[in-house]
């Protein structure tokens, strides 16, 4: 059974990730955990026992709020909840708490709603970007406007540098969903491999699952993200899949921001990011 962890701050925007996770779970054997992280303040005059009792009371209140919030999303989708759990974590550190919980509970995917971000937010990081850039657990960033639809087509963008292990993970995801797999490679003039048939033959060596190969030339006058968006508009995939080399630190994000992190701010379809490591 796959496990998906969905984060929510009770905002309307966070419902996008919840809708995606519920739809994903409805198409396979998937357990969904809904996680809300909040910081429960402590007065300096309180004893350990006083704070422990207060913390327990506040967590119980928050869990009831979360259960009602989750229930409203299931109701709007007309889906009956199965294999779902509501969890409250007390911590001032939201991103690290999400990653710790995901790793400690052997979660397969973290699902979070994406927000647009201004320049300073991009440099300092939002929760979505921080998770994409740092989480060892694959992250699904879902645009706020997402509406639940059956997952039927996966678009996997590849630089062909690590094709076998990456394709294995994509196919492993696609099979239980019964979804098609489209492999997109954006080529440059300096590349040795420019024949899509060569790529198809390489794909067939690694999997017998049907994979459609798209070899598109890069438009040097636009960004890589703009090139990907053009393909998305034409193909209309249910999910975009990227693999990224994760980096940490302020100046790495400033100077060497990965395409996956950049795209998490702009995505128009749900984006699944695996770490190349």
UniProtKB/TrEMBL annotation:
InterPro entries referenced in this protein's UniProt entry, alphabetically: Universal_stress_UspA (IPR006015), UspA (IPR006016)
Query: Signal sequence span per UniProt?
Result: none
Q: Where is the UspA domain?
A: 1-143
Family, per the entry? Answer: Belongs to the universal stress protein A family.
Protein name, entry field: Universal stress protein
